[in-house]
Design goal:
This protein is an all-beta fold and 320 residues long. The protein folds into two domains: 158 residues, no CATH class; 147 residues, Sandwich (Jelly Rolls), CATH 2.60.120. The chain is 2% helix and 50% strand. Strand 10 and strand 11 form a beta hairpin. The longest helix is centred in the first third of the chain and has 7 residues. It is elongated, with a radius of gyration of 22 Å. The two termini are 27 Å apart.
């Protein structure tokens, strides 16, 4: 039987229970205590970057191509395009040029710094875009960020004339794209899949990769099915738990002999067991697009001493 406990600091102090309630309808702690009825059929989806490819997503749910002549050239942009907030960019229109089609984003030379930020109104799971690196004096750094935490990133030195200029991320839940550019840039054709418009997924996150990657999904969190998760155990394992974080992932921080990967406020909730976890999911479509973050933890006897072993985290994307 799965038991839920609230984690205050490092110790479970209270039990909780209740009935499943759709997200954004009740306080987070109630949702946290009951959401394990929440997540169904699979293998983990693994994040993969799109780096210097000749094409982007093949069939995205949404595309923002910035039109043509929508704004005067070099107009600073922020909220002019529905569904995104843009920082440190200006608008420019040209003809077709190396995958730029009509209007695109370029550097706003009046803004301080050298980081382009594109924040999405709702989290996305896949994104591709055209990127021209103008100066080649240093690498560009491209990041996928969720709630201020870098989920995935890559860097490289490219140029304005190369035809393979599609970049992005897939199978990664994030709500912001950041590009550290060099002097100037061109960006066009944002193609993406918002959470809830694609299939359910389990998206792993493991910080600096020092935690054992022993928490996995057997099934995806598909509405109306039963989600099954596993924590790999060994001969020295005493117990295990899945710890739900209402506020999602956090920047990795040292704890025990590993890394804590989740936010600690409001208090996480641990669901106890030994190795295997399974919960029925509601069929109501109101749950589609919900993202729930867990980190696995194991209690092993190491050298005769009970020791907490922190495992990887997992984002469960509830869908169809």
């Amino acid at each position: 039987m799965v038991q839920a406990v609230v984690i205050e600091a490092q110790l479970p102090v209270a039990s909780m229970g209740g009935h499943l309630v759709p997200p954004n309808r009740t306080p987070m702690r109630l949702v946290a205590a009951t959401l394990l009825a929440l997540c169904g059929s699979l293998v983990d989806a693994h994040a993969q970057a799109i780096i210097a490819q000749s094409s982007g997503l093949s069939s995205p749910a949404q595309v923002i191509d910035f039109g043509a002549g929508v704004l005067p050239n070099f107009t600073p942009v922020s909220t002019q395009f529905t569904g995104i907030l843009i920082t440190h960019a200006a608008y420019f229109t040209t003809g077709v040029s190396n995958n730029l089609v009509g209007g695109f984003l370029t550097n706003d030379f009046t803004a301080p710094g050298s980081t382009l930020r594109i924040q999405f109104a709702t989290p996305v799971t896949d994104l591709s875009f055209v990127y021209h690196q103008i100066s080649t004096s240093a690498p560009s750094v491209i990041r996928a960020v969720l709630q201020g935490v870098t989920i995935d990133s890559f860097s490289g030195t490219w140029n304005q004339s190369q035809p393979n200029n599609y970049f992005g991320f897939t199978n990664t839940v994030f709500d912001e794209l950041q590009i550290d550019f060099v002097a100037d840039f061109n960006v066009d054709t944002l193609a993406f899949n918002p959470v809830g418009s694609v299939s359910a997924a389990c998206v792993p996150f493991n910080g600096s990769a020092i935690n054992p990657p022993d928490f996995s999904c057997q099934t995806l969190p598909v509405l109306g099915t039963t989600w099954q998760g596993i924590i790999a155990t060994n001969a020295n394992t005493v117990s295990s738990a899945l710890v739900y974080a209402p506020s999602g992932l956090a920047a990795p921080s040292p704890l025990f002999v590993g890394e804590l990967l989740i936010q600690v406020s409001p208090s996480p909730i641990a669901f106890g067991g030994v190795g295997s976890y399974s919960w029925p999911l509601p069929s109501a479509s109101i749950w589609a697009g919900s993202v729930f973050t867990f980190q696995g933890v194991r209690l092993d006897v190491v050298g005769g001493t009970p020791t907490y072993v922190l495992l990887n985290a997992m984002q469960l994307v509830v869908g169809f």
